[in-house]
Specification:
Shape: globular
Strand content: 15-25%
Structural class: alpha/beta
Number of helices: 20
Helix content: 25-40%
Strand order of the largest sheet: 15-24-23-16-17-22-18-21
Length: 602
């Protein structure tokens, strides 16, 4: 509830990268944040976020405001991966051929990629190019060329029609760092801010010190040699999963490996690639052709042990980095952003280190959050933390009625619609082992569903995981589900002696054995760890109420929680998406817009 009187500053943040996104800040508060994938349905879309920007501009127009400054969250993007967005269209085989065929000259490789995209264009499979790439010559495709910045800013000027006073470009890791400093509700005065990712503006790891009292964020050092994300991406591909998308599957697979075997792979393949020196991650004996080295060196090892080994690498290197910083700068509190911050197993290891007093991991630290970091950088007055992450589209901009709902169903005779169902009735269904989908209010920004676009179930019921996997989500059999647990009951189930905040499912925790059977379906079945959303009532009152009612009936203060989407699709956003997901899955129940309860007859 922002009062638009004496408005100080309005900022627009834009991420042109994978996870393309845009966000709007007014008076230091992030009000809107959109991911382009939710509009064009290309998961982790890489490119210019035209529709996301349009949504922010629409809001500004309605409120009769002007944007003081718009900031693009990377200064030196090279044009090639945006003109030819491999992440959006390459298959696993395409990626493998791309990396293994390093003996081809660059010009030959470029020619093959151009031919690949020419074919897609003829088949009309590409319709997301907005920038006029014809202005950039082929010789400049791989240069950090100022013309690409001009393309972006000119298109934004045209799109905004005079609503933006100034356009700027901001360093990639500066945006990651500002997100890590200002998005969480940091209590302590001195915090080490770390950014670790694959690459951005020539860097892949930075270390900053944030003085919260003085509101100063100062970069201490940086590295262009931190290959943690790149190695993890290569392993993802070698294990026949999609890079830049399925790294979380490798993380989920890692605990199944036998410790002695994964350590053997780690020592023989990964141990000597990187080291930590002077509080930064650098090369040790890194081979020039990193992909071919890992591809060939892991050939004799089992898939699970390779996954376990690369996870060991990430945990050991990050632990050493945090240890050196703590010793040299006497810092006990850390906040992390960048793609590697999505590794919740690493975050669990770091949070459990004796010298770490507190760890902050803001939601969805991959590149989609750069747009928010850009807003925090542009705003030179008080930056306000994220109270929640419900920053996207509403279920519907219009009032939903029965006619509207029924119209979207293909099989209209197969549904029953009930109005004003009580939360205790939903809780009874959960207790019986039924699976309920929830869609209400504004969607979550980022990778995690947190009660507004969720599928929930009884975390103690046998067969629930198999049912969700086979009938709804089509997930890999080894992948764990997450848990939402009431904050006041967390200590009965998880080890969180440091009282680390986990509003957004960004940190792993060890579980307690006594009541483990009550939450087993929302944990990793092998190592019994959990990635919880520790839920306070004020965070999402309706979601809290459903779980509280379930607790009264079952004695379990938690539910299994996974995102409302079909396999390979982004999280379902609007009413049309939600009905499509519901009708094309094995879901039987949908609690919609806090009012309608829809049940399939068959």
């Amino acid at each position: 509830n922002i009062i638009f009187m004496n408005i100080n500053k309005v900022y627009l943040g834009i991420n042109v990268s994978h996870g393309a996104s845009a966000s709007l800040m007014i008076n230091g508060q992030i009000l809107l944040a959109f991911q382009e994938e939710r509009f064009n349905k290309i998961k982790n879309f890489c490119g210019y976020p035209k529709i996301s920007i349009e949504k922010c501009l629409d809001y500004v127009k309605i409120k009769k405001l002007k944007i003081d400054e718009a900031g693009f969250s990377t200064f030196n993007n090279i044009p090639f991966p945006y003109k030819y967005p491999l992440d959006n269209y390459f298959s696993i085989k395409d990626w493998t051929d791309y990396y293994l065929n390093n003996f081809f000259s660059k010009s030959t490789k470029i020619k093959k990629i151009i031919n690949f995209f020419d074919k897609l264009k003829k088949e009309k499979k590409i319709n997301n190019h907005y920038l006029n790439y014809k202005l950039i010559k082929k010789k400049d495709y791989f240069k950090n060329h100022y013309k690409f910045r001009i393309l972006q800013s000119n298109f934004l000027k045209k799109q905004s029609r005079g609503l933006i006073n100034k356009i700027s470009f901001i360093d990639h890791h500066t945006c990651h760092a500002h997100y890590a400093a200002y998005a969480p509700k940091i209590k302590e005065n001195k915090v080490a801010v770390l950014t670790i990712d694959s690459e951005g503006d020539g860097l892949n790891q930075t270390f900053w010190i944030f003085d919260r009292k003085k509101n100063i964020l100062k970069k201490i050092n940086e590295s262009a040699e931190c290959d943690l994300a790149r190695i993890y991406r290569f392993v993802t591909l070698i294990l026949k999963m999609k890079p830049n998308e399925h790294e979380f599957k490798v993380m989920g697979l890692a605990p199944y490996a036998k410790n002695e075997y994964s350590h053997e792979v780690y020592k023989n393949v990964f141990e000597n690639i990187l080291t930590v020196k002077n509080c930064k991650i650098i090369h040790k004996k890194r081979p020039k052709d990193l992909f071919s080295y890992i591809y060939n060196s892991t050939r004799g090892y089992r898939f699970d042990n390779i996954a376990g080994a690369v996870q060991i690498l990430v945990e050991k290197v990050s632990t050493e980095l945090v240890k050196q910083i703590s010793q040299k700068y006497k810092i006990k509190v850390f906040s992390i952003s960048g793609g590697v911050s999505m590794n919740i197993k690493m975050n669990m290891i770091l949070s459990n280190l004796k010298f770490v007093k507190n760890l902050y991991v803001p939601p969805t630290g991959t590149d989609e959050s750069l747009c928010i970091g850009a807003c925090y950088f542009l705003n030179k007055t008080e930056n306000k933390p994220l109270n929640d992450i419900y920053l996207g589209q509403k279920v519907s901009e219009n009032v939903i009625d029965k006619k509207m709902i029924i119209k979207l169903f293909k099989n209209k005779k197969n549904i029953l619609i009930q109005e004003n169902i009580k939360h205790h009735q939903i809780a009874k269904l959960l207790d019986r082992g039924e699976i309920i989908s929830i869609a209400k209010g504004r969607e979550e920004f980022g990778a995690r569903a947190l009660g507004n676009r969720s599928i929930i179930a009884n975390p103690s019921r046998d067969g629930v995981v198999q049912k969700i996997n086979e009938q709804i989500k089509n997930r890999d059999f080894w992948m764990p589900f997450a848990l939402t647990i009431l904050k006041e009951k967390q200590h009965n189930y998880i080890h969180n002696e440091k009282k680390i905040v986990s509003d957004f499912m960004t940190i792993g925790f060890k579980t307690k054995s006594k009541l483990y059977k009550n939450i087993i379906n929302g944990t990793h079945p092998y190592d019994q760890s959990v990635r919880p959303q520790i839920l306070e009532k004020k965070f999402n009152e309706e979601y809290y109420s459903i779980i509280k009612n379930f607790y009264k009936i079952s004695g379990i203060p938690a539910v299994l929680n996974t995102s409302l989407n079909l396999h390979g699709y982004p999280i379902s956003s609007t009413l049309k998406d939600i009905i499509f997901t519901f009708e094309n899955s094995g879901l039987k129940y949908l609690y919609l817009d806090s009012k309608y309860f829809i049940r399939k007859k068959n």
